[in-house]
Amino acid sequence: MAQSCNLVSSSQGQKADKSSIQTPVGITRQPKSSRITTQSSQISQMSSKTRDDLTARLVRYLLYKANRKQAIRFDDISKDVYPQYRNISRYFFEKACTQLENIFGYHTVQIEDASREHFLIINAITDQAHLSNIYQARQCAGRGFLILILGLLCCADNKQLEEDELWAQLKSADDKVERNQDHPVLGDLSTMLKRFENELYLRSKTQVNSELKKIRVYMCGSRAELEIGKEAILDFVCKVCK
């Protein structure tokens, strides 16, 4: 109790001298300059083969994430790829991103609205014939459904639609669309909608409408804007409306 009182009176009476502030026991604070030095020291001690192997390990990790349409959290790289090393992720991330683009045609883009460092791996090749071959090879029957949703969102007021209104517009475009019933070609559309959201093609939020009821609102996600683009989406809408 006396210790608490002393802390209060000290903070009220005068500002604490920074030199007198001690790091709590068990916690070591490492200055940024020290971390950079540690990183450089670790990497300089590695052989060329070790650096190549560690880069290849991260490239495989990023390709796996790209194939699953998952965002990459930079903080996860040390945990998932380099658990036995510290402070080397930045160096190898830059090397791996360069290889992804030069060899595989993937571009690494940071999500600007994320609270932490999040990245998407997207196809840097924009040739339509190339993209068509990819989608045919993957048998992406849901690709057209996704573009239809994005087109409806781009044409909506404020670029967003309430969930009920989105389903109503999808129904008007295809009378086989049912919210709680499998589509004869696409299957479970509710699950597909959730998958698009997990892949960041869509994003949603809950808000209260004028009747004070909670509703879900859908908008275009980061991946849709970076990978497909507004121009391609609107071009699709124009072709459909002709």
TrEMBL record:
<dbReference type="InterPro" id="IPR041899">
    <property type="entry name" value="MAGE_WH2"/>
</dbReference>
<dbReference type="InterPro" id="IPR002190">
    <property type="entry name" value="MHD_dom"/>
</dbReference>
<feature type="domain" description="MAGE">
    <location>
        <begin position="51"/>
        <end position="242"/>
    </location>
</feature>
<feature type="compositionally biased region" description="Polar residues">
    <location>
        <begin position="1"/>
        <end position="25"/>
    </location>
</feature>
<feature type="region of interest" description="Disordered">
    <location>
        <begin position="1"/>
        <end position="48"/>
    </location>
</feature>
<protein>
    <recommendedName>
        <fullName>MAGE domain-containing protein</fullName>
    </recommendedName>
</protein>
<dbReference type="Pfam" id="PF01454">
    <property type="entry name" value="MAGE"/>
</dbReference>
<dbReference type="InterPro" id="IPR037445">
    <property type="entry name" value="MAGE"/>
</dbReference>
<dbReference type="GO" id="GO:0005634">
    <property type="term" value="C:nucleus"/>
</dbReference>
<dbReference type="InterPro" id="IPR041898">
    <property type="entry name" value="MAGE_WH1"/>
</dbReference>
<feature type="compositionally biased region" description="Low complexity">
    <location>
        <begin position="33"/>
        <end position="48"/>
    </location>
</feature>
